[in-house]
Amino acid sequence: MTDPARLTGAVLTIDLEAIVTNWRRLRDESGSGHVAAVVKADAYGLGVAHVVPALHAAGCRHFFVAHLIEALEVVDILPRGSFVAVLSGLNPGAESACAAAGVIPVLNSLGQARRWIAQARIDNRRLPAILQVDSGMSRLGLPPHEAAELAADQELPDHLSILAVMSHLACADEPGAPANLAQAEAFGQLADLFPGVPRSLANSGGCLLGERFAGDIARPGIALYGGDPATGDHAPFAPVVRLEAAVIQMREIPAGTGVGYGMTWHAPVPTRLATIGVGYADGWLRSLSGQGAAWFGEVRLPIVGRVSMDSIIVDISALPEGALAEGDMVELIGQHQTIDDVAHAAGTISYEILTSLGQRYHRVYRPAAAQQELAA
Fold first, then answer.
1. pLDDT tens profile 314-326
2. Considering the entire predicted model, what is its pTM?
3. CB-CB contact of 316 with 250 (8 Å)
4. Is the separation of the CB atoms in 364 and 15 below 8 Å?
């Protein structure tokens, strides 16, 4: 039987135990009552159908996604009645489907709140909701005057069960940014409009900012998946992904030869090259042209020329002749370069690297210990 990795030419290994390890670390360090998991964008591209069960088996009970269509997928994975919330709220007309599925909308505007209240009247029952207030990011959430108007609505408790008041930190990746304390102060004042309601402010970086940011529900995302959520001297989170790709072809070119589309790179000396079967269609961003690298053993193999749709070309001159052969796998993400290293080379952030990883890879999931224990 043919090895699936030979059919795809690249292998993406996803360590579910590492995701669980990162969640437990955040749970222990955040000081909040609950640590949720943000699993939007197919669990940051790593496969919500695998990630959510691993986290649930480890004890995670709160899950956040961006859109209702994502929530419906997560609801199908979890036991009935699980806490699944939609960060973007509901588009007009989606209220009935949300209520029927038992999904919790994050209400970001008076319009969303009024429509959800109307759905509660139609269903003749109180519906759960989270209120998001804008503490300064100016992206989503009720501005102060709308939050005050909603809080003054005497009929609100008759129709909605408010499970939490939340906001989102704009600069949590910069622990010393004055905006963090300013947002915490603004959030506290807005949350006071809803006394006795649990609070949620901390994202991944916020979990590392201390007790003032912890709240009752933390909502980490990138840290779960091995990314660095903030500058500082904290220990790195456990790496989650490893990406390896196969050598398609090797050649030696004379000095002066142009390489790749546009021939943007010319060999300064006779050079040995290898073509690797990963390109921008696989999420290996075009901005890595002439910037990124692969690794073989302890040797860095720089990308030369432009990243193509299906391939990259790397300089293998630093390897002994015969050390690399067609079909051998080189490392693109792993021991020698993290997702943050790749992001830095690409001029972007680790979030984009993860969520760009394509579907052509052969995916290998390393199970989490908690799942194995349940299965036993």
1. 999 999 999 999 9
2. 0.95
3. yes
4. no
